[in-house]
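Work package 3, deliverable 3.1, input record:
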Amino acid sequence: MRKSWVIGNWKMNGSLVENERLVRDLLNQASFSNCVALCVPFPYLSQVANLVNGSGLILAAQNVNSHSSGAYTGEVSVSMLKEMGVEMVLVGHSERRQMFGESDLSVAEKAGALVESGLTPIVCLGETLDERESGLAKQVVLSQLAAVSAHLGAAGLAKCILAYEPVWAIGTGRVATAPQVQEVHAWLRRALAEIDEVLAQKISILYGGSVKPVNAMELFGCVDVDGGLIGGAALNSADFVAICQTPCKQ
Ligand code: 13P
């Protein structure tokens, strides 16, 4: 039985007032069907750490630098995040790959630094529309996975969560269909099984890209989907709560 997750990625949104309202709305819920984490912008980590303290909601960050310290102006290290109570960190989000030039190697190095310090990397993978339309989706997601796997090995990979986020479905309202999502998740799980059968059965693979309360049930019903990575809908407490309460099939 794999852990199922609903992870909210706030991206570059929020304010002290809005964050408090959103988190308090979540804390008012008695329980959720999935484990829940919030990827919060750096300046608000301390605020949200205090709000979620002892609640079972997990504090997560959206990025990290793989170096441990030094002259890297504007960057944040794993130990800094750990000190703030962060347990999980997104790495390789497509917005970072596309807008900030992150490579497969830098994503793998970030994941490695996190695993080494006992934090959970949420490794994002996904193809662009062009790549999908050129029939390259499988090759792209498997090569993104291979880069992380080469750096971490099976034991390190076992400490990660994977998130398949087709770039064309992020923030566009254009959701991948359940069969499209299941197909990619099955490719990923098969590739993992070639590394290690037990790893393949244990690792959680989330889907992200325009997940809303109306489509969460169908997407989470796919056998290889272990929850979701949620952008826009994570900023609306009613929507996010509804998604958190949508059970995964397995
Ligand atoms: P949307 O849910 O807004 O499409 O964003 C998905 C995402 O990028 C989560 O990381």
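The chain has one domain: 5-244.
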